[in-house]
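Running co-folding for adenosine-5'-diphosphate.
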Amino acid sequence: MNEQLYIDGAWRKPVSGQTIPVVCPSDGKEFARIARGTAGDVDAAVAAARRAYEGPWGKTTALERGRLMMKVGVKIAEHAEELAQLEARDTGKPLKQARADMVAAARYFEFYGAASDKVHGEVIPFLAGYTVMVKHDPRGVTGHIIPWNYPAQMFGRTLAPALACGNATVLKPAEEACLTVLRITELVHEVGFPPGVVNVVTGYGEEAGAALASHPGIDFIAFTGSPGVGTLIQKASAEHHRACVLELGGKSPQIVFEDAPFETALPVVVNAIVQNAGQTCSAGSRVLVQRSVYDRFMGMLAERFARLRVGTHDMDLDCGPLISAVQRDRVQGFVQAARKEGVPVLAEAQLAPNLPAGGYYAAPVLFGNVPPTHTLAREEVFGPVLSAIPFEDEADAVRIANGTPFGLAAGIWTRDGTRQLRVANAMRCGQVFVNGYGAGGGIELPFGGIKRSGHGREKGLEAMREFSVVKTIVINHG
Ligand code: ADP
């Protein structure tokens, strides 16, 4: 199954006849292969999705779609341990993280399965003798390109709302990690979705991904990944005058005011950058701390940082390896450049002894007094590197927090209720947490960015708006 593509309800070999190695980041060793899908396979997948959309799938009721989706949620929950083991090996993430991911992956299908028949239209008062209805139609055939950091969660996050709305889908997962995507696709098959409703084409981004993004046969595309590729996706969408939703990462701040509840904040601030080895779009990669408490807070934070343990996925410590040698080298490039420029290192975690030599490990690093204009304070590192920045007062905090090219999420730590709301309102980003951060998947919570973090919203009922189009029907009945 791994070496095949899922098209039109069946597993088939790719046109190329070739495969791509799958490597475990914990030891750098190949342990599986996936099919190298290319443009011809994408053509077949899009054609199958179109047939499904115009055929039986297009005639299903929201209730029928919802029931099928709920069954996928149940199947994922039943296979959660097997899937978590596979996800951990494929991505290198600690097992406990992979287990939490499966809870979220199942939850996407439950949430959108249950929501499928609850998004209603409107009736608009108009001229005498008229009835005007506003309804939400599916987009049609939707394309989905997802990254390697949370393969199973991303599968649910992008496909479940699209299916709930009645679209037929073609998904291109990331070549670095997608084995749980293939396994969950088998579960989707088992619950009995009509052929062509879900198609999965593995392959390289420049081949299968580019072919899907530029395909004239899709009506919408949802992309999560790097800003550079996001630009390509949007350009390809522009060629066909079609909409897209882009989620492109961030440089999200945690703002710690002098009256913050330190004991609550500390573990959350650490986890927000160490979870998934910092390879999370909404990672809290900057911590802004009020000058009056900077030394005290940073002392406590550094102590926690230094105690973090890094190991293989099955050692199940605080942090696993990065996804690939390329990613590790990129992260270490940021760290080495900052060290050379004299940015102070306040703490560095230790790698567990005797880790496999071929693994892609990078120790979490805490930098202090990072100038807000520094690369570390502005660019997405996508690794376990936290940059601390002191600020003077509320206005200073807001200016620094908003002063990057990104705008995805923010955390605010203060006991002052009026300040909580003032600062939350001032944040230029898509999601704000007060005295907390992250939401264990946050399936119900609209999520997305502004500026270089992208546009459009995933998660929550908002995602169903993205995957549907409004149609106004005006009836003159005299
Ligand atoms: P990352 O830096 O996190 O790997 P990418 O943006 O490179 O992020 O990858 C995210 C997803 O986009 C992956 O599925 C990848 O295969 C795909 N991708 C990469 N390049 C392209 C491209 N030129 N066109 C379409 N998809 C691409």
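Result summary
The domain at 5-248 is CATH 3.40.605.10 (Aldehyde Dehydrogenase; Chain A, domain 1).
Residues 115 and 281 are 26 Å apart (CA to CA).
Job closed.
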